[in-house]
Structure formats: structure tokens, C-alpha cells
Amino acid sequence: MTEQYPFTPPDVSRRSTLRAAGAGALLAGLGGLTGCRSAVSEANSSAKEARSRPKRGGILSVAVNTDFTPSLLFAQSSQSYQHRLLYNTLTRYDDGLKPQPELATSWDYAADGRGITLKLRDDVTYHDGRKFTADDVIFAVKNLQNPVRAAQLRATALAVSGFEKRGDHEVVLKLAHPVANLFDLFEFMIITDRHSVEDAVKGTKLNGTGPFRLKKWSPGSGLSLVRNDAYWQPGRPYLDGVELRVMAQADALVSSLRSGQSQLSYQVPGKSLAAVKGNPDLTITSYDTGDGAAYVGVNTTVAPLDDKTVRQAVAWALDRERIVDQTLGGYGLASAAPWPKSSPAFTEAGRTHYTHNPAKARRLLKSAGLTRLRLPLLHLSLPGETAIAESVQYDLKQVGIAVELQPTDPATAQKKLISQDMPALWTMSHGFAQVQPSTLAVSAYPFNEAKNTSKYHSAAYTKVVREAWTTRDTAGAATNAQYRKISGILLDQAFIIDLAIRGRVQVASKKLHGVTLNKFSYLNLDDAYLV
Amino acid sequence: MRSYLLRRLPSALLVLLLASFLIFAILRLVPGDPASSLAGPDASAATVAAIRERLGLNAPLLTQYTSWIGDLARGDLGPSYAIGGDTADLIRDGLGATVELTLGALLFVILLGTAFGVLGATSRRRWVRGVVRVATTGALAVPPFVTGVLLVLVFAVTLGVLPPGGRVPVLSAPDLGVQYLLLPSLCLALPSAAVLGRYLKDGIERTLAEDYMRTATAAGVTPRRLLWRHAMPNALPPVVTLLGMQTGHLLGGAVLVEAIFAWPGLGQLAEAGLTRRDYPVVQDLLLLLVTVFVLVQLLTDAVYAWLDPRIRWE
């Protein structure tokens, strides 16, 4: 450490001066301290172990850019990773959107779609030792019906009109009408302890049935979790614990991965992915969940955007491929429709419905009697979001639309979004296209058929959305036809102009194996291990 | 003395009252509100309304203000709206982290400042004085966010000897805690160390140029003794005053360094509170800072009054 300051006073004894000046440096001297314990090697300690088969032990450090927000425990947000670590869900989808058992072992959806009977595991306990029963499922549904919980799938929870308990481990959910996205709800809804839910939303007690127990939540620092030794899956989890560490600054987050202090993150900005890609200790995995999509929202009550021809001109003017390459680091799918490839509503024709065609955009504007136009565009004042807004601004300028950028902080933008107070154009992200397609239009606010920020409303849209949502079937020719109708309206009306589907991009240490995410980006570490 | 302090108390309380009102009002003027932040990205207006109701944000502003002040007077800082947990706990934890960072930085300021000052003033080798000059100029000119990134790149990423961010409290695990503290406190300390070093260098040079120093040299006093026994005591007083001022500077500068090194101090807390419009956290935090400032002023006035009785009689 003293070598950093090789200043030598020749007349005054250099030794004495250095002794005085460097006393603190020696005090903090790395050699001495690292002789006790190293904060760096603590994180890397499992590296020297064999790597071929699952191994017990080790603490996984996950770098997140936003701290756990207990008040959003029942909503999906940008930080829902801990949900499946502390809690379980009733079912979980496989890659083909087929539900798989979790706390529910089997289910029987009534032929008329008016009820579903769930059989539940009988060997599950909460972290405090209390047994999990059907009452907990009933509570979980009622809890999401409460508007204060801000659960995006509240509409689906509200479709449950009654409960019939058949013993401690069987329950019937009675439905007011058939619901196509019932299993979205089951994958989304964490099963909390009904006795301590108020403590949970304050962050003081998170009592679940999941593979890890809460050790400590330090606001601003993150969550510290330890293995639940009484977990219902035998031999799981392998890890001793998980630390979710908050690294709000992107450079700090990337550095923590590159230095090995963290072994996993989903929040490396697009522009930093190239640097991470060259690191031999890290792997990048792109999840095809498509739970985030960048879009341009259009206020359909602002002239001349009340004319769909003008909205379509905007859609043709945008270079989606460039946006993916330049702002998402190449990790994303340029798409005019909201659906990821894993969605039953995905079609290649929908994805490429609008491509970059400035000449066509100009022709459409001319046909609407416009050659020059000036419009405001609101965007989040975050680096990645600003880059997208600037790309949109550049593309629209090429067709004669001068865009004035309005950088806005997330809290203000959120309020404007909900209160339908957006300017003519805005760029943001949406989710909920990664599960049953009907969920998008009933649970993602920008697409909501009843009330959305674009102030777009049409009887045809409402009809097809309600039909798609209130069916029992989630596949088949009739259902697919409905999905095509929804896509057709979205593309034709262009009140939300999709730009790119963003899956979760996982940056992980090569020492880490067995990590998965569910469709709502809840981290599943049941089978994860460090070698 | 007691009556003097009692006379000053009403004006101090008035300042606090006015500050509380301004803090409350300005926060309400900032666009956005905690309810829409809490409601999540896909919330409906009904959800936001329900949350507003639960948080008591539908009450008249005066009622909200008096309720806040009333709770504070009872020592109840209340729960955080958006961050979660108890506001008092959040501020206590953040304060501990910021004080730890500031003390760590202060140590570096003293050590590096002394090294810069002594070497700059006493070295006969030009290159050594040149290096000190470049180092102090660099430390002053390069902003902490650049220094921070460089330190992380060198010590965390390239050499891999120190963690790039996060915190382990020094008191809970001293060996680990100090390692987490080293980079952020060094980053925070560099500009102040440079200022201190320059003051010290000037002071030592001035003292060494005095006649009695030449006499002492002629009398055979060793250079080491000359520096530490004679020059340093004369050069130190203004430096100590400067050090006090730099401590305040360090506390203020900690906000940026906390962001770079993911250090969960008051700066990070203020940022998180403001971003989510967490009114209780931001209000209480700002009022705490004003209270500290007012108390320091009171203390300073008291010391002056104690030193100079004439002030007490004014």
C-alpha cells in the first residue's frame, strides 16, 4: 500500500516521514487484514471446488439495482427476484406454458369453466413451523383481491367468486366466469402467511414456505437469506444462503460481477453487455420470457395522433433493429407486436408488421395532410431509456416529425401514466405479454381495454379481449383466432407501438449452475449450486 | 450563560418550525406522489386511490402537516411509505454508515494530507516535489465519480484485492468491514487530502524559512527534530481549523461516493426516498440535517459567549 506514495524526504529521515504518513495505510494494510479474512475471496471461496455435480454449500450473491420494496410484495416489479426464494406458488409454467405442480399437486378445471379443484401438498410448513393448508390458498386469493396490494392480476383474482374447502389440503375456487389466465394467477400469486401479512408488507417478517428464510433485510443494502432446512423438497436447496445486494449504480453492479463479488445479475445495462461478454469467468444467458418490452405510447386524443394514419406513420418510421443493436446490446427481438416468441399469440407476420420504412411513413403523413409535425415525447430519465427515446427522436426526425424530449423521473412518469396525463408520445416498458395473451389486455395498464393511458377505446377491442379472457381454453383454433384479432387491432390502431421484446439477460459466474426464472422473473434457486 | 442560551432558544425553534414547513411544502410541490410509486407499473386509478386513502394522503395538507409535526414531537418518526420499515431505523442505519465512511475518509485525509505536506515542503529532490504537486492537483481536479471508477477498476476488477461495493459494518466484523471501507473512504478523502497537504506544505515552508530555524540548523539540530518539534507545531493550527471545515465537506461529498460504491448511507437513503416520493423519510431526514445545523450554531454561539462575556450581556 505504501508503494502508491513513493515520496521520500531526503533530509528528514524518509523512514520517519513515511512512518508518520503511512501509519494509516499500514493500519488498513491489505496484507494484515486479508490475513484474517478477505471480502473478495469470501465471495470466491467455492471456486476451488469440484465442478461436475451439484454441491451443497456456498452463499450466492446476486447484484440487483433496486432494493426490495416490501409494499410491492404482491405486485410484479423490476425487483421480484426474492419472491420465489422466500415463498412458493401453486403452479409454475414449463417452457411451453404448460402448468407444472408446486404447492398444488393436481387440479381439475370444470368443463364449464366455473370452478377449479386444487389438491395441495400436505408436507409443507412455513418458516415458523406452521403447516400450510387450504386456508392459506383462500387467503392468498382474497389478499390479491384487495386493491391496496396493487397486484396486476387482481382482475383474475376477482373472478374467483367463492371458495369451498374440502379438508386441509383440497380447495375449490368458484369462478364468476371462465378465466383463460387462471394459471397465470397461480404462478404469480405467492403463498404468504396469512397471520403476518401486514408485517410482510412492512418488510419486518417474511414468513413463507420457500427454500430460503429471511435472515435480514437492510434497507439500501439488500436481503440476506439462509437455507430453509425444513424445505419440502428433499435435499434442497443446495445453497447455504443468498445475498441480494443493491448496486444502484450500473458501473458498481458490473464491477461486482467482473470482480467475482457477485455471481449473478439480470440488470447489466445493454451498453455494458459487450464488456461482460469478453469476460472468461462470466456467461450471458438470454431468457425468452419476454417479460419486458420497449414501446412508444401514443395519446390518441392529441391531434393529429387521433388519426390512426399518423400513428401508423410513426410505427413505420422506427428502426427497431437499430434500437435492439444500439440500446439493448443486441439482446432483444425487434418486434412490432408485443408477443415474445414463446407466446401462443406470436406470429412472424405480427412481429414484422411494421418495419423501418421512412418513405412509407412520409407518404402516410402526406396522405393525412401533414408534412411537418412537432410532438413532445416523455421518457424516463434513466440512461437506457434515454437512449431509446433518442433513437425514436432520430427516426421521427427523418420523416419530418420534430420530437421534443421530456426526460421525467420514474415517480412522476408513473403518476402521469396512471392518471392518463401523458403528452402526445412517450416511451416506456410493459410486461405481461409473456403469459396467456389475454393477461396483457386485462392486467397491463397500457393495453387495458377499459381504461388505458392512450385513451384508446373501441367496442371491438373490448369484445375480443373479454372473449379471449373469459374462455376456459387457452389453445385451439378458436382461441388462436382471437389472439390474431387482438394482435390485428393492436397493430392496426397503433395506440401502443411496440419496438422490441426484452427477455431477461442473465449474467452469471461460470461457477453457478441450475438457476431458473419463472414467467414473472421470480428467481428459482431450488436446484442451484456453486462449484 | 443559561439565560443567554434560553434567549437564543426561541429563534432556534422558529428556524426549525419554518424549515419543517418549507420541507413539507416543497416536497408536495414535486410532481409524482408515493401512492402512484407504490402502486407499481400497471396499477389502475382505483388502486392508487386505495393506497392514497391508506396512507392518509387524501387528508387536507394542514392536517397532514400537523400530524407529522405532532408525531415528531412525540418522538415518533412513523413508518416509511415506500422503502419499508421504520423511518427511525432507516435513518439510524444510514447515519451509522455515513459516519463510518466519513471517519474513514478523515483518517485518509490526515495521513495523505500529512504525507503531501511534509514531502512537498521538505524534499530536496525536484522530482519528488513534482510528483506531490501532480498528485495534489490530480486529487483536486479529478471528480470523485471518476476516481471511484478508477479505484474499482484497479483494486477490485484488475487486482481483485478489495470489494468494489457494498458494506459490512466495521463494528460487526472489523476485518471485513475495513476492506469494504477502504476504497470509498479513499475516494472521498482525496480532494480534501490535497487541500490539507497544500496548506501544510505552505505552513512548513514558511516556518522553515524563519531565522530561528536557520539558527537551530546551525546549532546542529537534526532535520527530523527540526521538522517534527519546531516546524510542525507552528504549521498545524490553521490546518486543524481547515480539517474541521473539511469534515463538513466530507459529509456532503459522501452522497456521490455512496452511489458509486453502493454504500448504504444517508445519501443513498435520501436518493431512494426522493425517487419513490417517500415523504416521511425525506421530511425527517432533511429536518434532522437542519436540526444538526441549528444545534451546531447554538453550540458555537455558546462557546463564543463563554469565551467572550461581552456577548452574553448584549
How would you characterize this protein structure?
The complex is a heterodimer of chains A (531) and B (314). Chain A has 531 residues and is of the alpha+beta class. Chain A is 31% helix and 21% strand. In chain A, the strands form six sheets. A seven-stranded mixed β-sheet of chain A has the order 8-9-10-1-11-19-12, covered by helices on one side. In chain A, a hairpin with a 4-residue loop joins strand 6 and strand 7. Chain A is globular and about 70 Å long. The chains are: A alpha+beta (531), B mainly alpha (314). At the A-B interface, helix 1, helix 2, helix 3, helix 4 and helix 10 of A face helix 2, helix 3, helix 5, helix 6 and helix 7 of B.
> How large a portion of the residues of chain B is in β-strands, by DSSP E?
under 5%
The best one-word shape of chain B is: flat
Rg of chain B over CA atoms, rounded to whole Å, is 25 Å
Number of helices of chain B: 13
The helix content of chain A, as a percent range, equals 25-40%
Q: Output mean pLDDT of chain A.
A: 87
Q: Biggest interface, which chains?
A: A-B, 86 and 88 residues
Give the low-confidence spans of chain A. Answer: 1-35, 46-50
Strands of chain B, count: 0
> Which residues of chain B form runs of ≥5 with pLDDT under 50?
none
Structural class of chain A: alpha+beta
- For the termini of chain B, the CA-CA separation is 12 Å
The largest pleated sheet of chain A is described as:
7 strands, mixed
Set down the secondary structure blueprint.
The complex is a heterodimer of chains A (531) and B (314).
Chain A (H helix, E strand, L loop, with lengths): L13 H8 L1 H5 L2 H5 L4 H6 L14 E6 L18 H4 L4 E3 L5 E3 L2 E6 L5 E6 L13 H12 L8 H5 L1 E6 L4 E6 L6 H7 L8 H4 L11 E7 L3 E6 L13 E6 L3 H9 L5 E2 L4 H8 L4 E5 L5 E7 L9 H10 L2 H8 L5 E2 L13 H4 L6 H10 L5 E8 L2 H16 L2 E8 L1 H9 L6 E6 L6 H7 L15 H11 L7 H17 L2 E7 L2 E5 L2 E2 L2 E2 L5 E2 L4 E2 L1
Parallel strand pairs in A: 1-10, 1-11, 15-16, 15-17
Antiparallel strand pairs in A: 2-3, 4-5, 5-7, 6-7, 8-9, 9-10, 11-19, 12-19, 13-17, 13-18, 14-18, 20-23, 21-22
Helix pairs in contact in A: 12-15, 13-16, 18-19, 19-20
Chain B lengths: L1 H28 L4 H5 L6 H11 L5 H13 L13 H36 L3 H16 L2 H15 L15 H35 L2 H8 L4 H38 L5 H10 L3 H29 L1 H5 L1
